[in-house]
Design brief:
heterodimer; A: alpha+beta; 2 domains; three-stranded antiparallel beta sheet; 7 helices; 8 strands; B: two-stranded antiparallel sheet; 8 helices
Chain lengths: 243, 197
């Protein structure tokens, strides 16, 4: 068995004295693990940093074996990530959430493309919080908990959408909410691709995606608490936006 | 294969050491047996002594033979500078350079969301109390230039607050390094940290 693909490095664990087991997110093979012979060496350490874009050749005798990777660096994102506090926290959040949510060897091509685009923006701190919010929306959608913000779940109207139902993830208009408004989650305009994407709106967006990540995805699908890295990134992004 | 069970057990133990496999452990044991008086007996005595006396410094986390290591005990090292390192091996590497004259603080690892290593698992609360107790004026974060290392550095800087001078090691071209052989991340970091000649 063998294949070749591009992928994003998610995690590296030492395996024995000289090898490493890496987790990568690839376009055509999903999240995939494999052994890198000599992966613990100092020569390859700069290449095997989380977020790195790699050219991967995987080989194993049988398909369900862990197999071995031959890796070639395509581009490193370490310098961009290590150069900015927000970028570093963002990279940690993306890597932690990807590892947390995605099952191994399940293809998520659209999410892969979004992830690659997001990571290519590392270091552009003014763009990152909004791009990350959009990525979390895409992640929820890919995992089957997508928010349906196309029309009001009660009245069917497409204007005046102001809330999201915590049960269904569907948008609700101000008129449709009525006396239930206090039980619904506020829907910031930025989630609809409208408005000026202010820091406050993005923070509200993080609250909304955070709710579904925590209450639905983590609780119902993964059965583990959400990684702290996500909360650390959101807290930092909000703090920097206020400063 | 040796016919003696004790020697086999010694080979098995030696093979667990970093850098040694079963074959090299066998070679090392055979060498020790052949040089019994010169190597084996003194080594066994020293290992027994170290096993009885080696302990972690209660202040910095360095390994020594008393509760407080030589660096923490020396009044000459009370310069107000505190160098934070990930591991004892890093502390020893810094000491080998002979450049830093202050004291150290060994964290015992780095924060890692994926491996569930939080601040409580490291010696970060102890670091914060040391900064106050020892009138530290500068904390130098000598942590690895990895995602986990730098995440830990930012976390510590946040915890220590803005009033204290917190610095970190520079990143760039190593001594003897040739640009052609450097990865693009290192080149980017070096270019960003360029200085006037």
């Amino acid at each position: 068995m063998e294949w070749r693909d591009h992928g994003i490095l998610l995690n590296v664990r030492r395996h024995g004295e000289s090898s490493a087991i890496i987790d990568v997110f690839t376009e055509s093979h999903g999240r995939h693990a494999g052994v890198v012979r000599g992966g613990a060496s100092r020569k390859i350490a700069p290449v095997l940093q989380p977020g790195a874009q790699l050219d991967l050749a995987w080989r194993a005798r049988l398909e369900d074996h862990i197999g071995t990777f031959q890796v070639e660096p395509v581009r490193s994102r370490a310098a961009a990530a290590l150069g900015s506090r927000l970028a570093l926290a963002g990279l940690n959040a993306v890597v932690a959430l990807t590892l947390f949510c995605l099952p191994e060897r399940e293809v998520h091509g659209a999410l892969y493309t979004r992830t690659e685009q997001l990571l290519d923006l590392l270091g552009q701190d003014e763009l990152w919080p909004l791009a990350y919010l959009r990525w979390e929306q895409a992640l929820l959608e890919d995992m089957g908990y997508g928010l349906d913000l196309s029309s009001c779940a009660v009245t069917g109207v497409r204007e005046g959408l102001a809330y999201v139902s915590p049960k269904t993830g569907r948008a609700v208009s101000t008129g449709g909410a009525g006396e239930w408004a206090s039980r619904l989650l506020p829907l910031p305009e930025v989630m609809l691709g409208q408005g000026d994407a202010s820091a406050n709106e993005i923070a509200q967006g993080f609250d909304l995606t955070g709710f579904f990540l925590r209450q639905k995805l983590a609780a119902e699908l993964v059965h583990k608490p959400l990684p702290e890295a996500r909360d650390r990134f959101v807290a930092l992004a909000n703090r920097l936006a206020q400063a | 294969m040796s016919s003696n069970r004790d020697i086999d057990a010694l080979i098995d133990m030696m093979a667990k050491l970093p850098g040694l496999g079963p074959r090299s452990a066998r070679r090392a044991v055979l060498h020790l047996i052949r040089k019994r008086a010169l190597l084996l007996t003194p080594l066994a005595d020293l290992m027994q002594t170290v096993a009885a006396t080696a302990r972690e410094c209660v202040t910095c986390g360095n390994v020594g033979t008393s509760d407080t290591c030589d660096i923490c005990a020396s009044p000459k090292r009370a310069t107000g500078e505190l160098c934070v390192v990930e591991d004892v091996a890093d502390l020893w590497a810094m000491e080998r350079s002979g450049v830093f004259k202050g004291r150290y603080h060994v964290l015992g690892g780095t924060l890692s969301a994926l491996d569930a290593v939080g601040p409580e698992e490291l010696r970060i609360p102890k670091l914060i109390s040391r900064v106050t107790d020892e009138s530290i004026t500068e904390v130098i974060l000598a942590l690895n230039a990895t995602v986990d290392g730098q995440t830990t550095a930012h976390y510590i800087a946040d915890q220590l607050g803005a009033d204290l001078r917190v610095t970190s090691l520079a990143q760039g071209v190593p001594i003897g390094g040739e640009l052609d052989y450097l990865d693009d991340g290192t080149i980017s970091a070096a270019l960003r940290a360029r200085k006037q000649v």
